[in-house]
Specification:
Layout lengths: L12 H17 L3 E2 L2 E2 L3 H12 L7 H24 L6 E4 L4 E4 L2 H10 L18
Antiparallel strand pairs: 1-2, 3-4
Helix pairs in contact: 1-2, 2-3
């Protein structure tokens, strides 16, 4: 039986910035925004926008952009839940360094015990948090 290979792609900071820029342009132009996400055809639109702005990157709508949007959405949600959730206290947002901050290591440790997905976000920047 043949082993199914996965198509992994590492995104650069510049490529992430171009993806977020393309998403913002798409939303601001209208036509693809829906109540809970994007309307069909948005991947092709983003694929073309990235092809225009990053012609030699080889980024495809499927699987690259689709996968990256899922990942960025998960990352944003973890940081948002830490910072903006009414049930979390002791957290804030550093707009200069674009990262979540915590008032004490105890607060962080107790939060991470309950929210395993947050453990990698201590002192870690999410540069496009405000745009997303």
């Amino acid at each position: 039986m043949a082993k199914k290979s996965r198509n992994y792609r590492t995104w650069t900071t510049h490529e992430d910035a171009k993806l977020v820029e393309a998403m913002l342009n798409m939303v601001n132009a209208g036509g693809f925004k829906a109540d809970n996400g994007f309307k069909s055809g948005y991947l092709q639109h983003l694929g073309q926008a990235l092809k225009d702005s990053l012609p030699n990157a080889g980024i495809l709508a499927k699987p690259h952009i689709e996968s990256r949007i899922r990942t960025v959405k998960k990352e944003w949600q973890v940081v948002y839940d830490m910072i903006a959730n009414n049930n979390t206290s002791g957290f804030g947002y550093d707009s200069v360094n674009r990262c979540g901050i915590v008032e004490s290591p105890k607060v962080w440790d107790s939060y991470v015990k309950v929210h395993k997905g947050a453990e990698n976000w201590r002192n870690e920047s999410l540069p496009h948090y405000d745009d997303l």
